[in-house]
Specification:
Four copies of one chain form a homotetramer. Helix content of chain A is about 50%, strand content about 5%. Chain A has a two-stranded antiparallel ribbon with strand order 1-2. In chain A, helix 2 (about 40-45) crosses helix 3. Chain A has a single domain (about 15-125), classed as Winged helix-like DNA-binding domain superfamily/Winged helix DNA-binding domain (Arc Repressor Mutant, subunit A), CATH 1.10.10. Chain A is mostly helical. Chain A is built from six helices and two strands. The longest helix of chain A has 16 residues, at about 90-105. Chain A binds a DNA duplex through helix 3.
Chain lengths: ~150, ~150, ~150, ~150
DNA sequence: GTGGTCTAGACCACC
DNA sequence: GTGGTCTAGACCACC
């Protein structure tokens, strides 16, 4: 799985790494029990300090997505016993997204259609990298401001 | 419209102000053409620096939500010519939210149900403050570690 | 006595083994004089390196809980001449636990009630594995972020 | 409030800092709303890197004990809405402590007496530093091993 | 060889 | 001036 960092984003690098890995888990590019790259390997591959990768892994670990041990490196957890509820942070993001959608005149059904794309992401595309994903995000330059 | 900031949040204050105003526009608490408080007035009311409020207003202006003229201060835009598409940032947030939902075992229909609540927020509650909103999220964001 | 290690825990495996054995001694699942499995046997049974088990046994020996002789392997000590005082480490842990209890608003009597459960653990359950223990703590330690 | 680090302990420094501050909050040496030293100031005072202090503060923040903002530094939270339950980690420590107590022949009532000292710590000693605390922990060298 | 901790020093966002 | 991020490099515990 390729982890691409946007160096101009103001989202911290360790956060971006964390987000990408969660994405990978959600769309099946990373399977339960699968080995993650070692901290050092990923750091070198991405050209960042291993402290930064370490911080991302710590975050993922503490959120319950992965676990680490000193012998075997980091792995995706097999069973994540979450409680079928969005985190508070996710709810806040969703509220923001929908408020924007409403202002931009996006109807509910239209919005659900967008959501379906994300829900389906990775469904058939396992192993095909980000086939589904790329289609979603062509940057629309016609926007007044981004 | 009351703008409440969460002093425990990591989200910068100017961002919180910006978010709240966008929310207010989306749910009808702020109407097209409506006058916003002056930078100075809002700053004083909220107990923050006017630099902070100014930054929030600049952001809103730059995003096309409000406009300012020297005589009358800031007002909500009458016609926002958006192209019925989410901003890139909103798409990224939505992708993150849905990836989390999938991992937590939230089905698509269940997710849409959550969305509907946000879509309906403010529909009948125009002018009634945050009646609808409060119901959605036991929003004690001051809660420690989720 | 079954020694279960939690692979998700940050506590080193040798520490977990040591803790479990001390627990076993305290609640009667291991009797004074009782033979412990050989390092090699336990290591194989648990699927860990014998270095790891060895380290745990060294620790237990050094703390005065077990003794080893070349012929018979390791056995629980018959008479442990402790001086009816907690170790420094235990005191530090207790201090931390109580500080947390106080902050969380747990009254002294309430706290004692929790303690009583641990004190009683194993009282009638000798030889019945972890009957009493399981009741105390919905111990799915594999639960993510508490 | 003085934060003393044991450099020989295998408890990480940032953990020790975290523990000491929680202790300070629990016994009243740190009051709700009280300002903590700045990351840099504490780091210099303790002779550690500011990254280390930063990590401790992050931990405290994420656990809900303190909050930070870039203007005013770190402060003890006013209201910590915990749920009157020990954390899983605290329960595990308590279990270990009590198992040790039982092995060492400490009766329940005797144990409660020790607990009472910790519970009372700071009750009248506000401003008197660690009056109560020091009495508890004179290291008993008569122990077979520590 | 792995992750975890720690440092000294730098730069940044927010104010 | 504050906390937050990041680096390059070191050492350590566990294995």
């Amino acid at each position: 799985m390729i982890i691409a960092i946007n160096e101009y984003s103001d989202v911290p690098i360790y956060q971006q790494i964390r987000n990408q890995i969660v994405l990978g888990i959600s769309d099946g590019r990373l399977s339960p029990g699968e080995q993650l790259p070692t901290v050092r390997a990923l750091a070198q591959e991405m050209g960042v300090s291993s402290m930064t990768v370490n911080k991302a892994y710590q975050m993922l670990k503490q959120e319950g997505y992965i676990f680490t041990d000193r012998r075997n490196g980091a792995r995706v957890r097999e069973e994540m016993n979450f409680n079928r509820e969005l985190s508070l942070e996710a709810k806040e993001m969703l509220e923001r997204v929908i408020s924007e959608a409403k202002i931009r005149g996006i109807e509910q059904e239209e919005f659900f259609e967008i959501c379906r794309n994300y829900f389906d992401a990775g469904k058939e595309a396992v192993g095909q990298e980000t086939a589904g994903k790329r289609d979603l995000e062509k940057k629309d330059a016609s926007d007044p401001a981004e």
